[in-house]
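A reminder from the course coordinator: this example appears on the midterm review sheet, so study it carefully.

Given structure:
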């Protein structure tokens, strides 16, 4: 298979927070993989910026170590790594100070695409945006990339949007939700909108319900301080799960263009019914082989949830009567992210020997192995009569498209290249983020006002018992995690 890649113009990409975890683990290894694949245009440069006083060689050495640690061995070629590191430069800048900006301005070229990656805490966005302007570093067409968390409620998200809007147009702002960079998430759009097979069935007449699960095996560990102020609802549902819900539920956009897609996603968020208390289950992991949630955070009486399950209604014609069940948590049975579309059973079975319940199911796996499978019912082979059996129609990219297709780019590398191409389709627009917070805020306020405690759950489980009951009471059950 020959892959076609949309070409990219040479660029200057400045990464603020160049010495941080995200830069080391995701951004630089991702850029290296694109370079290794020959997709970083000749003459492009990556400039690291952070407070740490060091020269470019010292930063390059740390990035060489990061590549060796985070990029697959099959892509370690000394000569390619050397050429990649030669594209890197570094400048020491304290975003809140006034040193280093002129050096950065002198480094930037006006004739290439300029992008600034804000891989620093959101508290620094204002100073960063203001100084990029004051020192005349950012050109009018430059792009800026911002990371989650984009606010912790509607007010703070609005304030962040206003801070950025003071210096940049919305067309220049790329808000990353790395779930949108996953191959299968984009494939969900291809499956829905490039086939006639699914779209006529994609509604409450044929779909019984949808489950969206993002389960992690790890606890909050070293991130306890940050996580405890946030919790699963703010940290995962408001952004990642909401985005997956939008892509599953949205109407077909008229074109595959940034605003056409984002308009449809926004309509889904605005159509969400307020959540009822009995449709929310919050949990907190107990101690198991490793410490409990309360051992991982400072507050011994913390009521922050490390797990949440929700029953959500999209109040429009297409989805009336089809619930979306969302769940996400830490220290769960396995690391799994998937969207499961459960179709309804056939209205009548003509097969006398058919005792089981038969319904098609489409599952879209985001991790660990990206792919899709569709469960269909067929006749069990053999002379034993018309016995029915459910089998998967597995859409493994590698089997269908050759081994190259299994080597899918990591979400970060795809998204960074989209920034350089100027394609905002897979990035959240400011009004989308605000609408998501507007739906989330009253839900969180509800349990804070009531002083609710999350329910304890066993580490390595599927969450608290009540999360199972949430579906049982509707005569449904969650798909096994893992
Ligand atoms: N790590 C992840 O997996 C992940 C995932 C999603 C979102 N994020 C978000 O991405 C951002 C960066 O995360 P991270 O994990 O890389 O954080 P981190 O490891 O704490 O790194 C923070 C970076 O910011 C720099 N920095 C801090 N204060 C600065 C200042 N005043 N001026 C200039 N640079 C400054 C630090 O470098 P110096 O100390 O050298 O200045 C460091 O390079 C955060 O907003 C985080 O929420 C991270």
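Designed residues:
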């Amino acid at each position: 298979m020959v892959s076609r890649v949309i070409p990219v113009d040479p660029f200057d990409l400045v990464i603020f927070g160049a010495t941080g975890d995200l830069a080391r683990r995701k951004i630089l290894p991702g850029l290296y993989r694109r370079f290794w694949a020959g997709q970083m245009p000749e003459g492009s440069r990556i400039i690291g910026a952070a407070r740490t006083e060091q020269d470019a060689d010292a930063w390059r050495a740390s990035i060489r170590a990061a590549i060796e640690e985070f990029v697959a061995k099959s892509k370690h070629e000394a000569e390619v790594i050397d050429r990649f590191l030669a594209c890197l430069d570094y400048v020491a800048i304290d975003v809140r100070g006034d040193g280093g900006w002129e050096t950065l301005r002198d480094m930037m070229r006006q004739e290439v695409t300029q992008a600034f990656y804000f891989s620093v805490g959101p508290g620094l966005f204002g100073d960063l945006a203001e100084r990029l302007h004051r020192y005349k570093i950012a050109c009018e067409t430059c792009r800026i990339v911002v990371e989650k968390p984009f606010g912790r409620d509607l007010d703070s998200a609005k304030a962040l949007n206003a801070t950025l809007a003071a210096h940049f147009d919305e067309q220049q702002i790329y808000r990353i939700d790395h779930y949108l960079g996953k191959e299968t998430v984009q494939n969900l759009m291809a499956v829905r909108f490039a086939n006639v097979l699914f779209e006529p069935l994609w509604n409450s007449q044929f779909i019984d319900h949808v489950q969206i699960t993002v389960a992690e095996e790890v606890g909050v560990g070293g991130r306890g301080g940050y996580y405890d102020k946030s919790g699963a609802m703010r940290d995962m549902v408001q952004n990642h799960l909401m985005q997956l819900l939008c892509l599953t539920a949205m109407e077909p956009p008229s074109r595959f263009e940034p605003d056409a897609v984002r308009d449809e996603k926004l309509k889904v968020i605005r159509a969400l019914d307020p959540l009822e208390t009995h449709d929310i289950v919050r949990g907190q992991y107990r101690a198991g082989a490793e410490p409990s949630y309360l051992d991982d955070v400072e507050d011994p009486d913390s009521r922050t949830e490390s797990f949440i399950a929700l029953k959500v209604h999209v109040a429009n014609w297409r989805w009336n009567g089809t619930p979306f069940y969302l769940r996400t948590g830490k220290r769960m049975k396995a690391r799994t992210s998937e969207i499961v579309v459960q179709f309804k059973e056939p209205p009548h079975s003509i097969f006398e020997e058919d005792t089981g319940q038969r319904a098609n199911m489409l599952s879209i796996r985001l991790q660990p192995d990206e792919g899709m499978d569709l469960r269909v019912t067929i006749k069990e082979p053999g002379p034993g009569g018309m016995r029915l059996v459910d089998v998967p129609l597995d859409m493994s990219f590698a089997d269908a498209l050759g081994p190259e297709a299994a080597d899918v780019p990591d979400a970060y590398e795809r998204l960074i290249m989209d920034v350089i191409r100027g394609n905002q389709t897979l990035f959240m627009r400011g009004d989308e983020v605000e609408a998501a917070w507007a739906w989330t805020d009253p839900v969180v306020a509800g349990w804070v006002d009531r002083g609710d405690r999350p329910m304890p759950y066993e580490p390595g489980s599927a969450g608290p018992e009540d999360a199972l009951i949430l579906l049982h009471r509707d005569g449904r059950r969650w798909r096994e995690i893992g």
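Residues 16-23, 50-52, 93-96, 119-122, 124, 147-149 surround NAP (CB under 6 Å). Residues 11-147 form a domain with the Rossmann fold fold (CATH 3.40.50.720).
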